[in-house]
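task queued by scheduler; priority normal; single chain, no ligands, no partner chains; default sampling; output format set to C-alpha cells
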Amino acid sequence: MGAYMSYKVTTQTSIPAFRRPSMTVTRRFSDFLGLHEKLSQKHTHIGRIVPPAPEKSVVGMTKIKMSKEDTSSTEFVEKRRALLERFLQRISLHPVLQMDPDFRDFLEQDELPRATSTSAVSGAGVLRLIKGVGDTFSKVTIKMDESDQWFEEKQNQVEALDQQLKKLHASVEALVTYRKELGISTSAFAKSTAMLSNSEEHTALSRALSQLAEVEEKIELVHLEQADNDFFLLSELLKDYIGIIQAIRVVFHERVKSFHNWQNAQQNLAKKREQEAKFKQTGKTDKIAQAQEEIREWEGKVEKGREDFEEISKTIRTEIRRFETNRVKDFRNIIIKYMETLMNSQQQLIKYWEGFLPEAKAIA
C-alpha cells in the first residue's frame, strides 16, 4: 500500500446549516481534489467561479517518501498546507459554495466515500485534467461575436491581468530564491569569520570577529524568515490569483457554450418551421401534426436556451464583481502585512548592527 499524507482540518462556524459549531476531520490530498471536482461539476457550467485546488506534485511527494528530514520536503509540506488552507477558506467565504452539501460533508463527515471520480483526479488524472483545461482554450473552436460591451471589456481586463500577474509571480519567485541564497552565503560568511576569530592572536580583534560571526548568524535567520514571507505572503497569493483567473476563463467559456446551445436551438426551430411549411405546400397533411409538435418542442428549447444564457451571464457578472472586490481587499491586506514584515526585518538588522558597533570601535 502506497504512503500518503493526511491533513487535519479544523472548522469554526456560526452557520446553522452545519451540525456543530466546531469540527475537526482528517483528509487526504485526494479528498481536496475530489471536493474541487464535485464543486466544479455542479457550479462551473452555471457561471460560478470555483476556487482552484493545488496541483499534485509527484516530485514533492517523492522527496517526502525518500527523506523525511530533508529541508525541501519540509518546505513542500508547509507550502501545500498553506495552499489547501487558502482553497478551503475561499470556498467558505463564497455565499453559495459554503452551503454546498459536498463542502459540508467534507468538513463534517468523519470518513468520506472513496468515490471513483475522487480517485481518478487524485493521481496522474489530475495532471491530465489541469493540462486539458489549458488545451481547451488553446484549441477551442467555439466562438461568439460578443454583443455585450461589459463582457468584452472584462475578458480583455482578465487577459491583461493574467499576463501581469504571471510576470510579477516570476519576479517574486526569483526574489525568494535570491533571499535564500543570501541566507546561505551569510551563513558561510559567519562560519568563516568564526574560524578566523579562533586563529586571531589579537584579543580585541578576535572578540570582535567572534561577535561579527554571531551577528551574521542572526542575520542569516532574518534573510530566511523574509524569504518565507516573500513566498507565503506574495508568491502564493499571486499564484492563487493566476489559478482563479483560469477558473474565470472556464466560466467565460461556459457562457459561450450556453450561447451556442441557444443558437443551435434557434436554427433547429427554423428548420422545423420550414419543414412544416413544405408539408403544407405539398399537401402532406398527415405529417403536419407531428411537425407542429416538434416546433412546440423546439420553441421550448429555444426559450430554455435563452433563459440559461441570460442566467449564466447574470451569475458571471455577480461573480466577477465579487472577484474584483475580493482582489482589491486581498492585495491591500497582503501588501500592508508584507510591508510590516520588511520593516521588522530592517529594524532587526539595525538592532544587530548597532549592538555590534561598540565592539568594532573597541578594537585597539
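post-processing summary
- DSSP finds nine helices and two strands in the chain.
- Residues 173 and 235 are 6 Å apart (CA to CA).
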